[in-house]
Design a protein that fits this description.
The complex is a heterodimer of chains A (180) and B (164). In chain A, 83% of the residues lie in helices and 0% in strands. Chain A is built from 10 helices and no strands. Chain A starts with 9 loop residues before the first helix and ends with a helix. In chain B, helix 4 runs parallel beside helix 6 (109-122), helix 4 runs antiparallel to helix 9 and helix 7 (124-135) crosses helix 8 (137-147). Chain B folds into 2 domains: 1-44; 60-162, no CATH class. The relative contact order of chain B is 0.10. Chain B is built from 9 helices and no strands. Chain B has helices at 3-22, 27-59, 62-69, 74-86, 92-104, 109-122, 124-135, 137-147, 150-162. At the A-B interface, helix 1, helix 2, helix 3, helix 6 and helix 7 of A face helix 1, helix 2, helix 5, helix 6 and helix 7 of B.
Chain lengths: 180, 164
């Protein structure tokens, strides 16, 4: 998790976290799948997958680095507390549209979106707004699209998926209001 | 990646970095520092997720993916894509590595849209780590019910648009 305090021991902890249990789980699954692949598919196919992976990674790493830098600046520049005040004071359909917009521009992963959602819930925003906000963050979140969609799926597919997903958070919010 | 994608990523970074510098406070340093943190957290896992996904997808016979998720699969592809997205209990490194591999093996655009939409709105790990503890079971239940139709709607819109 990312916090704003940077005492000594912060970076070593971060690196320990990065190479922690779940990292070794990924390594284990990758090694197991590579072993199964070698046995089932034979050496030629195994080499082929490795060569393709190397190409994919060489292509991917600069983009992921660029995406992280862009997302890092966006995180610093966006006024997160003002967004919350703004959304609380708006209800009705307008509120849903604002919640969708706020979800799309909320920087950071779940560690920042869910606490923000809890603050909104505590400050009396209705269920429709809450559902729309978090659905929008999940589907339209600019950070997710920049960091994952564009590098891995390509710009054309990403924009296509983004455009057709625009109405979805509002649909979910309207459903939530009806169900609540 | 084509040029438009590179322009957005690198141009956007330069633009926001310039704004951060112009603020004359710690914004620039904080932004870079956060980028480095996130890269340190994500990259090691992403690399091995990609390797694992590429072997898994190669081990699933290609004709099976094309049959269930290919353009010919139509609505069935959307439903199966949605269900597949539902059961990926992990973060974006795995979900997007799998989606990229599916795409290489011939999965259709509507099936991929349904897959990513389902994973985005349900992502089981997020529910257990963040949503249940912070928002409670009643909210989680209501939200789940509200987002059930979304992957199918997204896949259906994608199918209507791509089939012209």
């Amino acid at each position: 998790m990312v916090t704003d305090d940077r005492q000594s021991g912060y970076w070593p902890d971060l690196i320990k976290n990065s190479f922690g249990k779940s990292f070794w789980l990924f390594v284990g699954v990758a090694a197991a799948m590579a072993a199964v692949g070698y046995i089932v598919l034979g050496q030629d196919a195994f080499t082929d997958v490795i060569v393709r992976d190397r190409g994919l990674l060489a292509d991917l790493l600069p983009r992921v680095a660029g995406a992280q830098i862009l997302a890092g600046f966006a995180w610093v520049l966006l006024p997160r507390d003002r967004m919350s005040t703004f959304m609380k004071s708006n209800r009705g359909k307008r509120g849903l549209v604002l919640a969708a917009a706020a979800g799309a521009i909320t920087p950071g992963g779940p560690a920042s979106a869910f606490p923000f959602l809890a603050i909104l819930a505590g400050s009396g925003a209705d269920r429709g707004i809450l559902v729309t906000y978090i659905t929008s963050w999940a589907l339209l979140g600019a950070q997710r699209i920049i960091v994952w969609d564009i590098p891995l799926m390509g710009i054309e597919f990403s924009i296509f998926r983004l455009l057709l997903s625009i109405p979805l958070p509002i649909i979910a919010g309207l459903l939530a209001r009806r169900l609540a | 990646m084509n040029d438009a994608g590179a322009l957005i990523l690198y141009g956007g970074g330069v633009l926001l970095g310039g704004i951060a510098v112009a603020r004359r406070d710690d914004s620039f340093r904080d932004g870079l520092s956060r980028a480095l943190e996130q890269a340190v957290l994500i990259l090691p896992r992403l690399i091995f997720a990609l390797i694992a996904a590429s072997f898994i997808v190669r081990l699933i016979p290609t004709d099976l993916i094309v049959e269930y998720l290919g353009a010919e699969a139509g609505i069935k592809g959307i439903v199966i894509g949605s269900l597949a997205g539902l059961v990926v209990p992990s973060g974006p490194a795995v979900a997007f590595a799998v989606a990229a591999s599916f795409a290489l093996e011939g999965a259709s655009v509507p099936a991929l849209v349904a897959f990513l939409t389902a994973w985005s709105v349900f992502a089981a790990h997020r529910v257990f780590i963040f949503e249940l503890p912070l928002l409670g079971a009643r909210f989680v239940r209501l939200r789940m019910l509200s987002v059930i139709p979304l992957p199918l709607i997204a896949g259906a819109i994608a199918m209507l648009v791509t089939s012209g």
